[in-house]
Amino acid sequence: MKRSFGSISCLLFMLTLCGLLIQGCVSSGTPQAASKSDVHPALASREPILLVCPVNSMISEKETGSLSRILAPLIRRDLFCVQSLSVIPTEDTAIPGKAFFMTESGLVKVTRHHGADMVIVGMLRGDTEKISIELKAYDLKGGYFVLNTTVEGKPSKIFKLQRQLVYEFIDALGIRLSKEEADRIKASSPRKAKAASEYARGLRNEQNKMYTEAIIAYQNATTDDKYIAVPYAGEARIFAIFNAPLRAVESYENAVVRDESFAEAWYQLNLYAAHYKKQDDLAAKYCRKALEIAPRFGKAHMSLGTRLFDLGDVDQAIEETEKAVPLLPADPQSRYNLGIYYLNRNKPEEARTWFEQALRVDPGYELARTELQKLK
């Protein structure tokens, strides 16, 4: 019995030792899913300014290939709900050429030009049976790809694949979503493949300046799926081209009724309320709705500052616009506006400083140059 007990003890010891060795091999030799705090420690204190490029496609089949067009607007809409991110809005995201194929130096150039320090690019491949979407996120400050991931599925699951990419990007940044943020992202969860196809067709026609066909496709998309809101923004852009501001307002109103977390639509409603309805108080309300969703929405801070200045609250206008400045590193307007506000406060030296900053950002910004000449 003693020999048997000793043999069993020895066996247990060997099994335990093997278990520890195996555990050590797994932890040191096999890539494991890192915890959020371990993904990129340098990102822990960062609140990136993010540029979402259009997603490229290698698919010859027109209907399936067009699905790549819908990814950037949907990704951007979701990421606006993450309150530690600053996302550059739609009107600032014109990217020449094929962003996915750019070298790292090309991505750096594009990112700096738009005032971002992080850029997302993507590629959609496949056929009518199966697609794969590769998404990369390049960090300009760190000089490396924060994310390089691929998801696969049927073209009919395009909305699910897009949302999966959003969550993978958020996870790569080490961001832990609050319940409120998670609820806002999920608030717009389109699901119908037909709506995706129609929305993609609308974007393709809009790009080709076939505006009537684009409007029809956008309307089909919103009819096919009661949860999708982004096609309303496409409608509004076309109505703006045809100088129909009231129709554009109606489209953006439809967008926020369907998706209250659509920050870009609230921002656009603010612009229309101020410029066409001449209702600065209503415009300020829309700005605050956008900032409730996305507190780091630089354009919304700047626009709220303008509304407050027009309403006579200069101190609050300065406060809001100063919040915009670090979020808009490539935009001289916020700095110019601060110059005007300080002139109103009879503080010419502070005004001069802001006009000079506007010219440092954009040496060709003539409004700031004119004000500096007046001060001289």
List keywords for this structure.
single chain, 60% helix, alpha/beta, five-stranded mixed sheet, globular, 376 residues, Rossmann fold
Which secondary structure elements does this structure contain, and how are they paired or packed?
Layout: H1 2-29, H2 36-39, E1 49-57, H3 62-65, H4 68-79, E2 86-87, H5 104-113, E3 118-126, E4 131-139, E5 144-153, H6 158-172, H7 179-187, H8 193-207, H9 211-224, H10 230-241, H11 245-258, H12 263-275, H13 280-293, H14 298-310, H15 314-324, H16 333-344, H17 348-361, H18 366-375
Parallel strand pairs: 1-2, 1-3
Antiparallel strand pairs: 3-4, 4-5
Could you state the order of secondary-structure elements as H and E? HHEHHEHEEEHHHHHHHHHHHHH
**What is the residue-averaged pLDDT?**
89
| CATH homology superfamily name of the domain at 41-187 | TolB, N-terminal domain
Main beta sheet strand tally, sense and closure:
5 strands, mixed
Q: Poorly predicted ranges (pLDDT <50, ≥5 residues)?
A: 1-39
The strand order across the widest sheet is 2-1-3-4-5
Total helices: the number is 18
Structural category is alpha/beta
